[in-house]
Amino acid sequence: MASNFARFPLPFKVGTDICRTSRLKNLLQKRGGERFINRILTEEEVKLHSRVLVPFLEERKDGQMVIYTGEEMKGKAGPIEKVAPLLASRFAAKEAVIKASEDRISFHDILILKRTTGEKNGEPYAVIKAGKGRKEAREALLSISHDGDYTTAVCIAATEEIWLAAPKELTSAAEREGEVE
User: Fold this and answer.
1) pTM of the entire structure?
2) How does pLDDT run across 52-74, given as a tens digit for each residue?
3) Which 3 state secondary structure label does DSSP give 13?
4) Domain-located, residue 1
């Protein structure tokens, strides 16, 4: 039976995920919610989204950012209402990237960024950091959608054979685009 059809001809993988925003809102209001934020966001992403995270952040004397949630955040609906959708989109996007990746990667191996130039300004994309067998950072395409209490993300990532065949100038351009301030 397997011989009656042609294999999918393109070397891409797809990942998808869905996340309920109210679930994350509840996590943020519990003690230990800061561990969840630190588990999902990289240090670069915490800095990138510091305006939204301000009510949760405190900078220590050593320059490290500390995130607060739980009891001290109860009753502060504004911050939770902004942070929960941000975390839901990052959680769903990173889960989709993990599912589309051929490598064993974690949330901290992935940066979710938005394009800042050109006609695709504001479009989200993922950068899978170099390391764990990857010599270079790699880009993956993302689509993130919100509908009521749900956030979905879809990721399309190239397989290893594409990256091995890609011209060096293309991989370098993807790395430059992914730089975070």
Assistant:
1) 0.76
2) 776 666 655 555 555 555 455 54
3) strand
4) no
> Could you give the CA distance from residue 177 to residue 129 in angstroms, rounded to a whole number?
13
Q: Which domain holds residue 26?
A: 10-177
Q: What is the DSSP letter of 154?
A: E
CATH number at residue 36: 3.90.470.20
- In 3-state terms, the chain is what percent helix, strand and coil (to 5)? 45, 25, 30
| Residue 2 included in any domain | no
Tally the domains of the chain: 1
Tell me which residue of 162, 142, 150 sits closest to 96, measured CA to CA.
142
Is 161 part of a structural domain of the chain? yes
Beta strands in the chain (DSSP E): 12-20, 57-59, 65-67, 110-114, 124-128, 138-147, 150-158
The CA distance from 29 to 31, in Å, is: 7
pLDDT digits (tens, 9 = 90+) for 66-116: 555 545 554 444 567 788 899 999 999 999 999 999 888 999 999 999 988
| 3-class secondary structure, 117 | coil
